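Let's sit down with a protein and look at its sequence and fold side by side. Once you have written the record down, we can walk along the chain together.
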Amino acid sequence: MQGRETAAAPLDEGARSILRQPKAVWATAGASVVAFMGIGLVDPILPSIAQGLEATPSQVSLLFTSYFLITAFAMLVTGFVSSRIGGRKTLLAGLALVILFAALSGTSGSVGELVGFRAGWGLGNALFVSTSLAVIVGAAAGGSAAAILLYESALGLGMACGPLLGAVLGDASWRYPFFGTAALMAVGFVCIAVFLKEQPTPARKTSLLDPVRALGHGGLASAAASAFFYNYAFFTVLAFTPFVLNMTPYKSGAVFFAWGVLLAVFSVLVAPRLQERFGSLKVLGGSLLLLAVDLLVLGYGNHAAAVVGTVASGAFIGLNNTVYTELALGVSDAPRPVASAGYNFVRWFAAAAAPFLAPKIEEWTDIRIPFVVAAAAAVVGAGIVWVKRTSLSLEAKELKPLHAVEDSVSVVAN
């Protein structure tokens, strides 16, 4: 228990110093907000895109599939690239790709073109997001706890504001959110180019297979396997629910904004306190089971229940994101950037699968069954946590929150 008390102190210290940061940190954090906005940006405009491009829900959902499939494979590349050219150049390369493919997305004449452009966007986002935390930690003032808190706040803010931006711009045309994202990322590119100095490259270069080798550790493999099933449930909510709600972009954006606010609050503020009190694995297992119940409410409730269930899922997703990331970073003896890359390589495949399979399952059955499948996936994730609880603990000790990670690399998923 003594470790929990010492873990809480840096968190409070980081909270006090989070606003006293150099311009380089604010530039990177601001660009991170926009990068995370890109994940939920298309949520409120999915029906509009389907109508504008005369596409089916399953075709439009491929916007997520192509994005996250490329992101999964990019996990094997990002460490290889950043350990050779440095964090600053990796960030700028990622931003340049996002600007290019976000702008091209807005010019799409068919759903096939849009899916392809989203794949390029996913590569750029992977390069940027997987490097931004390490850069923020390296440049931040006030200790790494403040840097981690700032990064997680950027993640939550981006996830909350993405659907809102998509709704505001998408109400005029489904193309405008893509152009808006490209413009915001261009501002981020200029800020990072001006304010962020190049950081030293690591002494040891990361190979392409290092993340795969890291999965040979039982604890990390168990965390990745559980997160795979959790991510299937998560992205069923994110990619399929907009079609179920069938709202105007403004109303759908408001629902997912509330969802994102809960995600941010529970990820940054609530998760550490629950971990301190109950332990990481109990929080994770309980949250996964509650998410499963919430998904069943989403599937079988009326429209009002679906709205409430969508918003409430943000709380469970926020808890899960924080605990899974800390498990991935601390459960094995692999370097944290390598462990994170291996973990994310596995879990992003589920993020690619869910948006494609959920509409297909609806076509084969009815609108409730995709949520039943997602709920079952969440239960399987909880089951893995329970069965592998020993290997998911550090030397048989209850895992404590890791909010002061010095050299970690984390991805949006979070």
